[in-house]
Amino acid sequence: MWVLTPAVFAGKLLSVFRQPLSSLWRSLVPLFCWLRATFWLLATKRTKQHLVLRGPDETKEEEEDPPLPTTPTSVNYHFTRQCNYKCGFCFHTAKTSFVLPLEEAKRGLLLLKEAGMEKINFSGGEPFLPDRGEYLGKLVRFCKVELRLPSVSIVSNGSLIRERWFQNYGEYLDILAISCDSFDEEVNVLIGRGQGKKNHVENLQKLRRWCRDYRVAFKINSVINRFNVEEDMTEQIKALNPVRWKVFQCLLIEGENCGEDALREAERFVIGDEEFERFLERHKEVSCLVPESNQKMKDSYLILDEYMRFLNCRKGRKDPSKSILDVGVEEAIKFSGFDEKMFLKRGGKYIWSKADLKLDW
Fold first, then answer.
1. Residue among 117, 101, 111, 146 at smallest CA distance from 326
2. pTM, entire model
3. Pairing assessment for the beta strands 58-61 and 74-78 based on DSSP bridges
4. Contact yes or no for 300/343 (Cβ under 8 A)
5. Is 180 a catalytic residue?
6. What are the Cα distances from residue 281, in Å, to 261, 269, 274, 285?
7. Distance between the two ends of the chain, CA-based, in angstroms?
8. Least confident segment among 19-33, 78-92, 223-237, 325-339
9. What gap in Å lies between CA 273 and CA 279, rounded to an integer?
10. Given 11, 39, 119, 343, which residue has the most CB atoms within 10 angstroms?
11. Transmembrane region positions (predicted)?
12. Are 158 and 207 in contact (CB under 8 A)?
């Protein structure tokens, strides 16, 4: 309507000057009143767009709606830092030996479910170390049977898994991810995955068979670093046929694998972005490949440590929140540094329930 104001004003002004001089002054008075009212209304409307009345003598700029709380859709729970391997680039090292009592861990998982968790991933350290995998098995069963989570998964180096564990707990597990960085056993030893006479690659193939036998979706995680960046794993990955092959770029985390307080010195493992891209290009025919550069990985995971604290990696180190057991999920997650947009961009949400994967067992 304000676009019409000049035209209306011109019309009124013209009608005024067509009148005799005696009535001119009488016509100008209402004209000036009309002008004053018009521009006052315009100014009031614009002011209301920027100001919100708070009281008779107080105004403030209009505030945006507060952001919605972050939903912990997918959580990675590193309930132990202890490990039987010594991978040189490890970014979650054995700085403590603490493991929560089982019932406290269950209480925390229930809090996460109530806050919206759909997927839990158990990791370490090596998650099969505490109580020879029984602690882990009980958590897996609790999450699937009592919490009814759509997806329960594990990341393990695979060296401590026995077939009996599959017999007892396999039905409750959706995905087992095995870390394998090379199909050359000498390279695995250089990286820190050597276990004396045990062959990491042979064990990987045995675990693949067990996953098929006990109907658990099989996944492979590989960290691309200075010792395997030139390797071609195409044929071996195709033969194992995992549902996903997650390929990470070696990442430095201060206090974990670099810096004064670190238990590892991973600088010698680091590769550049171009080298990582060349590795991906070499494996472009592998349909299950899911690449994650450092940029995608750093802030796109919700990580809980052994005390059930969210770990914020935005500053290149792991700064812990308060434990969800003490302050609840909604308060603790504010300090997680989680980038939900990057989580979705990197494909963090996918078909993660074995019931929906429709695999040919």
1. 111
2. 0.81
3. unpaired
4. yes
5. no
6. 36, 20, 10, 9
7. 69
8. 19-33
9. 10
10. 119
11. none
12. yes
> Which residue is associated with the tokens 């005696």?
22
Tell me the one-letter amino acid at 276: F
Catalytic-residue membership of 87: yes
SS3 118: coil
Mapped onto helix, strand or coil, the DSSP state of residue 189 is helix
Helix (H, G, I), strand (E, B) or coil at 199: coil
Q: Is 3.30.70.120 the CATH classification of the domain at 74-346? A: no
Residue 280, judged by CB atoms within 10 A of its CB (0-12, 13-18, 19+), counts as middle
Domain ranges for the chain: 74-346
pLDDT, tens only, 117-173: 999 999 999 999 999 999 999 999 999 999 999 999 999 999 999 999 999 999 999
- Residue 356: phi, psi to the nearest 5? -95, -15
90 is annotated as an active-site residue: yes
Max alpha carbon distance in the chain (Å)? 117
φ/ψ (deg, to 5) at 86: -130, 55
Residue of 87, 143, 211, 258 marked catalytic:
87
